[in-house]
Each structure stands twice: as C-alpha cells, then as structure tokens.
Amino acid sequence: MIEESVVQGVEIAIPSPAQWVLDKLNGAGHSAYVVGGCVRDSLLGLEPHDWDICTSARPEQVIDVFGAERVIPTGLKHGTVTVRENGESFEVTTFRVDGPYSDGRRPDSVRFSDDLIEDLMRRDFTVNAMAYHPAEGLIDPFGGREDIKGRLLRCVGDAYARFSEDALRILRAVRFSAVYGFRIGSYTRYAMATEARMLGGIAKERVGAEVRKLLAGRYAAVVVRENIAVLNVIIPYLQDILNCSQNNSYHYANVFEHTMDAMAASWREEVFPAEWADEYARAALFFHDFGKAAVKTCDEQGYEHFYGHPKVSAERVDEILRGLRMPNEYRRAVVQLVENHDATLYPSLPSARRWLLRLGEEQLRRLMKMQECDAAAHVASVHKKRFADLKTFSDCVDMVLTEASAFSLKQLAISGKDLLTIGYTQGPEIGKTLRSLLEDVVEGKLKNEKEALLSAAAGMR
Fold first, then answer.
1. What percent of the chain has pLDDT over 70?
2. CB 373 within 8 A of CB 277
3. How far is residue 205's CA from residue 315's CA, in Å, rounded to a whole number?
C-alpha cells in the first residue's frame, strides 16, 4: 500500500536534529517519517515551525531508543511523546487508528498500528496527510501534493466524518484558507456550512486561537466573505454589519464590504510599510466598525451617521475577545486600536508627543497603518486627504523620536531616588511629581535632562 502512495522526485530538507531522531528510530528497527504540517509547509516553500514525526515504534519503545532523560511523556494515552535533541523538541507519535470522538476533540481510545497509511487516514485534510523520509520519498495516499499545487483544501475521506470527530476542523479549514490562500473544495465547504453549529460546543480558547490566526492571514478578507455561515456561529455582532448601509458622502459600500476592503488594504503600502499591519492591526481592522449598526441614525436628507461608533465598537470587541478567551495583552491592544481608529492625529510635534505617550511607538504605528487602511476603503476624495495628513503626522512622530525626549516614566532622566535626594519623602507625592514632569516633557515645556527636571521638581514642593 505504501509503495502505491510514494511520489518520486520530491526532496525535503530535514534539519539535522529531526533527521537524527529519524535515524535513531530507523537504527532500532522501526519505521519513522516526518509528517503533517512540516511536509505541507516544505512543499509550499515555507520554513516549518515544527517537525513532527510518526513511527511504528510504541511509546515505550521510543523511550527505550532515546532514554528516559530525553523523552517527555506528553500524551502516552494517544501514543505521543516529546523527544529533546540539541535544545529542540520533536513530537513523536505512534501510527494509530482513532476510536470515537465523544468529546468532539480527542478520540476516546486509540489502536496502535504498524501501518503508516492507516495513520494518515485519520488526519483532517489531504495537505496534512503526507509523510516523508529521505530514503523512501513522499508518501501521499490522498493526493495532498496535487492539492497543494492547485491550492485546494479537501478533507481526508468523508468531510462529515472528519468534522464530527472534531468540529474545530471546520474553523481550521477557514484558517488554512486565510493563511495559505487555499480554495476550499465544494463538498468540504458544504459540510462546513452544514455542521458549523457544532462549533458552539468547542472550548472558547481553542476557537479564539483559530480566529486570531485567520484574521492575520494574507487572504482573510476573501475568506471571511466566503465563510460567513461559519463565522456567524462564533463571532457575535458580525451579522449586524452584513447589511448595514452607509448612505453618506464618505463611503461607497456598506459596513461589511467597507471592512473587507480595509482588511485587504493592510497588505498594500500606500503610505506605510505593510509590516506595520501586524496581527493586532489586522484584527482591529476586522472589528473596527462592529458598533456602527447600534448607533446608526439618518438625518432629514437621508444621510446616515454613526456618531460614537468607535466607543461602542471597542466595547463589543472587548466582549468578543473576552468570550473567546484571548490573551489579555492581545485583547487590550486590539480594543485600544478600535477605540482610537477614528481619532484625529493632528500633524504637529505636541500631538505626536502626546500620542507617543499614550500608545507607545509600536502601537502608534499600528494605529497609523490602520487609519491608512480604513481611509483606503473610503471614496477617493477622502482617502487622498487622509493619506497626506497621515504622512505629515508620521513625519512629526519621526522628528519627535529623534529628540532626547521621554514617553514613559522609565525614559525620564530622573527617578524617585533622585527626588529623595532633594528632600522628597517616600510616598505618593513622588509618583505624582514624576507624572507631572513627564507631561511637561511630552508637551515640550521641559527638556528631558536631569538638572532641568530636578530644578522643576524642587519648585513643585
């Protein structure tokens, strides 16, 4: 069976530590292959993050081969251990056949196997169901290599069966499509839409991890459009923006289409580098107008307005990201961007200093890029002016960053210890004085120099 599935002429460069693991298992008389995502990414021309290995060796045999000091028994019940080599970790999993998935996440039981093909049959998508060994070649029983060439995503075997085993695979399909640009096969897509309701029973943190990755994907705007039936199940308020019109002189599309166009613009460089639109900025672009439907009004002329929508959008995204158990650092950054996405960034040095104090350099650059993308999804007369204003503001930020200035207490040229030397006593007065001095530095009233700051502090007593 394996011989019939071998694709000749494929070479994958396996890092030496992973090759060492394969060689040790082979030398002990076991079959072993790199498998799954590392094979897929190698065929896509990408550098794999992890090198997972499957083997005919049972977990206890893997421990015997490498020694207990090198092996972490991470998932013995399901045949997985982690082997440490040269500071790196490699998941090594025994060939297996899965039993029923009563919890919709992991099989209730597994049966270990000596057959690689049986192991590949249990995997989610054809592009993830390939294995490789330098001496044998690419083992591809389900046509994953051709699907990669055609940028096609299909389930292994019956899609309904794969999704009933683990409904998160529905969202993984959306994520793979968003990140790699895969087109989801028609049968797989139909099964996803039909079974999307099952996502409601998946642990929120697992759903949140997939949402975070798919929103950062290169093709997220296209994929969100194509998978609304799936995303509506897990993202509150998305339905609200789908048909929310924007009848005014600034917009050419409804809220949803405007949002998708803004997301797509994050990969362009109209004003700022594309890398400024990192995962935080791209998520904020997706959520930035989630509050518009709630505040929409229409004047006597028929023009529609959305006063106060940034605040409502920020409240909604905070609720959504909390519900998806997103990390606090990620949630706070995204919420802050959404809350400020419509703020006016006045092109002046004092304004640049204030925004740097408020957000910090990295977050401010995200906001500038986000505003560029938002502007790009408006009518031409709007985005041309906003592009020019953003560029001028950015120049001001660059000028401020060349100053010996400060935008946090850590950057201030004095500390609480310095205030103690001029007569201050330990207590809240020190913090209050330092914050006041920082504000004066930001406003340009004081230079960030020790003598000037101490002199000013002495005068505050």
1. 98
2. yes
3. 20
* Residue-by-residue DSSP string for 40-83: HHHHTT---S--EEEESS-HHHHHHHH-GGGEEEEEGGGTEEEE
Name the pTM for this structure.
0.87
Same structural domain, 75 and 144: yes
Q: Which helix (H) or strand (E) holds 35?
A: strand 32-35
pLDDT in tens, 408-426: 788 899 999 999 999 998 9
* 281: pLDDT strictly greater than 70: yes
- Residue type at 157? G
Both 304 and 422 in a single domain?
Answer: no
Across the strands, what pairs with 153? 184
Asked if residue 36 and residue 60 are part of one domain, the reply reads: yes
Give residue 9's pLDDT band: very low, low, confident or very high (50, 70, 90). Answer: confident
- The stretches of 150-278 forming alpha helices (DSSP H) are 159-165, 168-180, 186-195, 204-215, 220-226, 228-234, 238-242, 255-265
Let me know whether 65 and 133 are in one domain: yes
Q: Shortest CA distance to 444 belongs to which of 393, 404, 392, 395?
A: 404
Give the pairing type, strands 80-85 and 71-75. Answer: antiparallel
Same-domain check for residues 338 and 309: yes
Do the domain assignments include residue 245?
no
For residue 387, give both structure tokens. Answer: 């592009």
Q: What's phi and psi for 112, nearest 5 deg? A: -70, 150
Residue 445 structural domain: 409-459
At 234, phi and psi to the nearest 5?
-115, -10
| Statement to judge: residues 18 and 106 lie in one domain | yes
User: Are both 389 and 418 inside the same structural domain?
Assistant: no
Candidates 204, 226, 203, 228; CA nearest to 319 is 204
Residue 312 near residue 288 (C-beta atoms within 8 A):
no
8 and 140: one domain?
A: yes
**Taking Cα atoms as reference points, which of 148, 266, 262 lies closest to residue 216?**
266
